[in-house]
């Protein structure tokens, strides 16, 4: 598609804003249309692995995000009683993948991405629909509450229940329930002193990680029927995890019912035939929603955005670059979910013993799970980041 000059991005989340920033950097006039009243995400944190940080280097943000992170990869995997099955550290992660694994609040990343755009580029409260996907000879059109917009490129970053995806691929079955539900909290926990960890039980997991601002990010997941919700989700967490090792009881004691977010997990089990149609490209969950068990949902959205900006005049090349990789990552995330949410007593015991043995013989399972993922590099150089430039020499 020659002469791509104007892009409309539907969705102001991490994938959409990264795409907008990357396209703006390439010289396109960009408009971001976000349905919500503000860009502030529902409170949770995001783990960024080296692949996503290298992608952010392309738009000059990687080093700043590395500097904002509190957690640099130290931690490991534990049992509900507190025994360590596997340990990892920042040095091992950096040596294996050429950079750290870091954690920060999603709102922090959203703010930094939005700051890369012109002040008038983002419009909130804009519920947007695709009116025409366009083709080589005519622009795409999107319908907003304030009228229609034409664009040489439309980026659909409208999430797991993407309306744009449904328009482009009406016969695709869409997302399916992954078999488990999740809870998340971001709260201050006075006196908490702990190493970052994820804990695997039978059909349940828990994770606790510090943020740089002093708060704690904790998440939990459990095998459960779809659609179930408790009247008091904090009480539900206390029932399921209250007798697990420290600092889990302290986190639960510090949380209020209103601090706890609960969401069922869905993923796209059947890959899409393409990540584009006409002048429209899908990024992030709209294209390849996956379980959070590898922490790669947001990371892959960031990768998508940078690769899309690189191929913005050839969307078939974008699909060719992204569909095989994201399909493989999504399938691995499903496999990991089956492993860490096993429900059988005997199988869980064998799993834990195998993890402990493998971790004594080589890199921690936590690091092994990122092989082939965290070592990805963006298609464009030189990078804006000095750190990545040095690493490329």
What do you see in this structure?
The structure is a single chain. With 393 residues, this protein is an alpha/beta fold. Helices cover 35% and strands 23% of the residues. It is built from 14 helices and 18 strands. It has a seven-stranded mixed sheet with strand order 5-4-13-14-15-12-16, sandwiched between helices. The chain has a six-stranded mixed sheet with strand order 7-2-1-11-18-17. Residues 385-393 have low confidence and may be disordered.
Compact overview of the structure:
With 393 residues, the protein is α/β, with parallel strands linked by helices.
Main features:
393 residues, alpha/beta, seven-stranded mixed β-sheet
SSE inventory with pairings:
Layout: E1 6-10, H1 14-25, E2 29-33, E3 45-48, H2 50-58, H3 62-68, E4 75-78, E5 84-88, H4 90-97, E6 102-105, H5 106-114, E7 122-123, E8 129-132, E9 140-144, E10 147-151, E11 153-156, H6 163-168, E12 176-188, E13 197-200, E14 204-210, E15 215-223, H7 233-241, H8 248-254, E16 261-267, E17 276-277, E18 280-282, H9 285-288, H10 297-310, H11 315-340, H12 345-361, H13 365-368, H14 386-392
Parallel strand pairs: 1-2, 1-11, 2-7, 4-13, 11-18
Antiparallel strand pairs: 3-6, 4-5, 8-9, 9-10, 12-15, 12-16, 13-14, 14-15, 17-18
Helix pairs in contact: 1-5, 1-10, 2-3, 2-10, 10-11
* Residue share in β-strands: 15-25%
Mean pLDDT: 91
Number of strands: 18
Helix content: 25-40%
Shape: globular
Main sheet overview = 7 strands, mixed
What is the structural class? alpha/beta
Gyration radius, rounded: 21 Å
Question: How many DSSP H or I helices?
Answer: 14
**Span from first to last CA?**
34 Å
